[in-house]
């Protein structure tokens, strides 16, 4: 029994980051309307995004179609502009998967005010 518990802990430790990453990739793909592999400013501005406050007070960006429970406050255009500027690290006008995933340590993009 103790062996099974250790095995379960190891499996969860390995799979939880993958599960979070898969959900994060779904949000990224949902916003990449032209399926070009990156998100333009226009694509992000058109996306139906919301902000959810975590129990520790952080703001997480969610696509409202993927919200499982609870409510998300709709992001304003100004907030989306600030989010895009935060994510587009190289300032080339597009958010790549690499830029997106750097901002998503838990599977959600953290919105910094």
Q: How do the SSEs run, as a string of H and E?
A: HEHEEEHEHE
Find the count of extended strands (DSSP E, 2+ residues).
6
Percent of residues in beta strands: 15-25%
Strand order of the largest sheet: 4-2-3-6
Distance between the termini: 47 Å
* Biggest sheet descriptor: 4 strands, antiparallel
| CA-atom Rg in angstroms | 16 Å
Shape: globular
Mean of residue pLDDT? 75
Please state the structural category: alpha+beta
Which residues form runs of ≥5 with pLDDT under 50?
3-21
Secondary structure: helix percent: 40-55%
- How many helical elements? 4
Summarize the structure.
The protein is an alpha+beta fold and 113 residues long. Helix content is 47%, strand content 19%.
Record keyword descriptors for this entry.
113 residues; alpha+beta; four-stranded antiparallel sheet; 6 strands; globular; disordered N terminus
Structural summary, described in words:
The structure is a single chain. The protein is of the alpha+beta class and 113 residues long. 47% of the residues lie in helices and 19% in strands. The strands form 2 sheets. A 4-stranded antiparallel beta sheet has the order 4-2-3-6. The chain has a two-stranded antiparallel sheet with strand order 1-5. A hairpin with a 5-residue loop joins strand 2 (49-53) and strand 3 (59-63). The protein is globular. Mean pLDDT is 75; it is low at 3-21.
């Amino acid at each position: 029994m103790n062996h099974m518990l250790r095995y379960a802990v190891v499996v969860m430790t390995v799979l939880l980051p993958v599960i979070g990453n898969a959900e994060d990739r779904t949000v990224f793909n949902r916003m990449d309307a032209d399926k070009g592999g990156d998100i333009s400013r226009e694509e992000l501005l058109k996306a139906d995004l919301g902000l959810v406050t975590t129990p520790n007070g952080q703001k997480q960006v969610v696509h409202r179609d993927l919200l499982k429970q609870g409510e998300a406050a709709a992001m304003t255009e100004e907030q989306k502009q600030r989010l895009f500027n935060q994510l587009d690290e190289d300032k080339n006008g597009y958010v790549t998967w690499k830029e997106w995933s750097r901002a998503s340590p838990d599977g959600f993009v953290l919105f910094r005010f």
